[in-house]
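Quick one - inputs below.
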Amino acid sequence: MHKNVVILGAGNVAYHITRALLENTINVVQIFNRTLDKAQNFSEDYNINYTDKISEIVKADIYIICTSDKAISEISYYVPFEDCLVVHTSGSIPLSALKGKYRKGIFYPLQTFSRKRALEYDKIPFFIEAENKEDENILLSLAKRISDEAYVVDSEKRLQIHMSGVWVNNFTNHLFYIANEICRNQDISFEILKPLIKETFEKINDDITPYDAQTGPAKRNDNIVIQKHLSILESDSNLYQLYSLLTNSILKTYHDKL
Ligand SMILES: NC(=O)c1ccc[n+]([C@@H]2O[C@H](COP(=O)([O-])OP(=O)(O)OC[C@H]3O[C@@H](n4cnc5c(N)ncnc54)[C@H](OP(=O)(O)O)[C@@H]3O)[C@@H](O)[C@H]2O)c1
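Output:
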């Protein structure tokens, strides 16, 4: 696959997509970003041309918009060419957000990207959408150069996938944060929870379904323990409500009661 790629944006996803493409010998010819030093920051490591000027955006086969969701439509006007494929990397923004006269597509990687974290790119599922079969195949080939997992899904399904990701990653991480705060306030090391966190994920990684993996007071319908926990949380209405909501959801799932 001999395609030249331009990356628009220089945040977490731009950094990792650029690395993943280069590691798989896809030619990234330029990084465009409104803040020049962020583009410069990693472009120089790979000897890639970079710019913050729309007038300097070079001709390429594929443009991958890796800006914040809110900026996708605006940035999509910046691509000054028509004979090219422009994609974005968001899980929740429809294809119609891309506004130019070029061909349009989606190149959504389902992973949490932080610049400082190394990732196994070949394990990241990519979700592809395009306006025609030919572009679908181009994007599938591009994704398969990076990863073993690439799928074609429409925008509605992608939104459901994105929301599932919010449940397993964003919400789970927020619960880690809450537990960390509770430990910190009680002078308890968060480290003691790490074997539990690890086993929680390893159970799911093995053949146990999330339904079967559940344990704890709500699963056991143990109202005495639930009330003890709620009494600790009485002074913090946010945590009290959150604990009650999650407990009620588990009770509803296993005991069909609220
Ligand atoms: N992070 C994830 O885990 C993840 C996973 C899958 C998909 N995605 C998707 O990937 C995309 C990028 O996410 P990210 O996490 O990489 O974002 P990020 O690290 O916050 O980077 C945001 C980028 O967007 C640019 N930007 C923001 N507002 C802009 C505007 N009004 N005009 C021009 N440029 C603007 C920023 O430019 P400056 O440097 O100038 O601020 C920066 O390059 C989003 O669509 C997101 O939904 C993210």
